[in-house]
């Protein structure tokens, strides 16, 4: 179990490290680390380059988390279909809670990769979209609840940072109230804590009343 879990975390980290925000902005002739909030997250890309590039980064970042979480399920299907004479790497015996644990390991690796990408000198975003994509695979109902809280908070306050943090809280509360497996509850709590820590500068600006809102001028600090 340890070996496939380690592989999942490593693969997840590499997937999460793919700097889509940087690459999309670079294709437009912009170094995203030098403009706006200097974050490669979808919010900063959208503010600097517009909705098209920003939404593209949002989808790609979410896809990273989904793939990092889903590959274990695919490995399970392959292992079941493969005969005993098949490649040894398929014989992970990934069944039941085991594949779920490996999926969580992949997602947590992706969150770290997005926040500290090895391709951009360990700089990165807040990992909110990546977490959303991963939990859409591992905990679909919780992901939908968190998305609803995110959307409602954004509509009421226009603060992306506040919406992202409350979505993390909602995900964890949903995992607890719905009696999900302990590993899902633990992963939800870990993702919530990680997202909140990554938003610590935004928390200071929220308290000071200087945090930018959706629709504010480009170049101002935001909550990527």
Over the alpha carbons, how many angstroms does the gyration radius reach? 18 Å
Q: pLDDT average, as an integer?
A: 88
Estimated structural class: mainly alpha
Count of distinct strands: 0
Measured by DSSP, the beta-strand proportion falls in: under 5%
Largest sheet: none
The helix content, as a percent range, equals 55-70%
Please work out how many helical segments DSSP would assign.
10
Low-confidence segments, given as residue ranges, are: 88-92, 218-224
How many domains in all? 1
- Name the helix and strand elements from N-terminus to C-terminus, one letter apiece: HHHHHHHHHH
- End-to-end gap: 35 Å
Please tell me what the overall shape is.
globular
What does this protein structure show overall?
The structure is a single chain. With 224 residues, the protein is an all-alpha fold. The protein has one domain (2-208). The protein is 69% helix and 0% strand. It contains ten helices and no strands. Helix 4 packs parallel to helix 6. The model is unreliable at 88-92 and 218-224 (pLDDT under 50).
């Amino acid at each position: 179990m340890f070996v496939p879990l380690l592989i999942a975390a490593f693969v997840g980290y590499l997937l999460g490290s793919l700097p889509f925000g940087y690459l999309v902005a670079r294709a437009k002739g912009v170094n995203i680390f030098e403009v706006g909030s200097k974050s490669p997250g979808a919010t900063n890309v959208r503010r600097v380059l517009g909705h098209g590039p920003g939404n593209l980064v949002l989808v790609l970042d979410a896809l990273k988390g989904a793939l990092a979480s889903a590959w274990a399920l695919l490995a399970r299907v392959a292992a079941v279909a493969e005969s005993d004479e098949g490649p040894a790497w398929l014989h992970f015996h990934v069944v039941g809670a085991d594949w779920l644990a490996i999926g969580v390991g992949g997602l947590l690796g992706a969150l770290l990769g997005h926040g500290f990408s090895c391709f951009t000198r360990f700089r990165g975003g807040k990992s909110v979209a990546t977490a959303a994509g991963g939990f859409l695979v591992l905990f679909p109902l919780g992901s939908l609840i968190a998305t609803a809280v995110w959307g409602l908070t954004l509509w009421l306050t226009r603060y992306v940072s506040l919406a992202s943090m409350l979505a993390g809280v909602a995900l964890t509360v949903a995992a607890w109230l719905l009696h999900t497996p302990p590993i899902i509850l633990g992963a939800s709590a870990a993702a919530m804590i990680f997202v909140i820590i990554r938003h610590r500068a935004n928390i200071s600006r929220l308290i000071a009343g200087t945090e930018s809102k959706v629709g504010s001028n480009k170049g101002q600090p935001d909550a990527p």
